[in-house]
């Protein structure tokens, strides 16, 4: 009995911490969205004459970085995981933005070389992530996690008998294909 109480208590603490963590991420989303609105205003003001191409390009790229970060937070809220692909994409755009803002001709060659090396590594990470399975068993945990979350959401919203056959079929096919791959 005491072990069961500890287990229930521990589960409640973990659930409470997950709720607090979700609230933190939601507040980050609200703050980021507000900052994006302010940045959009700045971008439109930079389009007024006299037009500085470098400033306009930097503002647009910075806004795209903010949008991708917002997307990363939304994915985290929906699936309780950080999308490595989106994080790498944000990193690539950030490096390219810095190169464009500083200008290739004005930056020291060591910084350009290190930025190129970082871009090659990030590009390779994107390619490797797409081609190779993330685990040794050949199971894509992100796909399975997404399916499990979708099924859990549908279970919470409806009775078991009302689950859409498409969701059950997708989960079953995902499980059977993962068994065939291992």
Brief overview, please?
The protein is mainly α and 182 residues long. 81% of the residues lie in helices and 0% in strands.
What does the model show?
By secondary structure, this protein is an all-alpha fold. Helix content is 81%, strand content 0%. The radius of gyration is 22 Å and the shape is elongated. The two termini are 39 Å apart. Residues 135-139 and 177-182 have low confidence and may be disordered.
Topology, pairings included?
Elements: H1 2-46, H2 53-79, H3 84-102, H4 109-131, H5 141-157, H6 165-181
How much of the polypeptide forms β-strand, as a percent range? under 5%
| Sheet of most strands | none
* Basic shape: elongated
**Strands, count:** 0
- Class from secondary-structure proportions: mainly alpha
Report the order of strands and helices: HHHHHH
Q: Termini separation (Å)?
A: 39 Å
Unreliable spans are 135-139, 177-182
CA radius of gyration is 22 Å
Number of helices: 6
Fraction of helical residues: over 70%
Mean pLDDT: 78
